[in-house]
Amino acid sequence: MDSGKADAKAVFILVPVRLGGGRTNMGYLKFVKGILGLEYCVSIVGGKPKQSYYFAGFQDDSLIYMDLHYYQSFVFASIKDFSLELFYCPTPRKMSFKKMDPSCAINFFCRTGRTSGRKSVPLFAFVKGHSKDNDFVSSPIQEELPSLNWTCGYFSHF
Question: Can you give the residue ranges of the Peptidase C54 catalytic domain (predicted)?
Answer without folding.
Answer: 6-112
